[in-house]
Amino acid sequence: FFWLRIVGAMAIFVNDHKRGWSQGRSRRNRRWRRNMSDRRWRRRVRRLWALEKERETWVGSGGGA
After folding, report:
1. 65 in a domain, yes or no?
2. How many domains does the structure of the chain reveal?
């Protein structure tokens, strides 16, 4: 489950990046788009880390996968 979660997040991230590049090739909004996607990605990663930590505690205490 852990690896599936990571791979899924990476796929979403790559799709976001490709869409951003295809939409905003102009020099004007390139930096803004990268910053926006970067911020969104950081927030998503932080949430993923929190979820995985919770799951680790569940497994350690005998919880399900």
Report:
1. no
2. 1
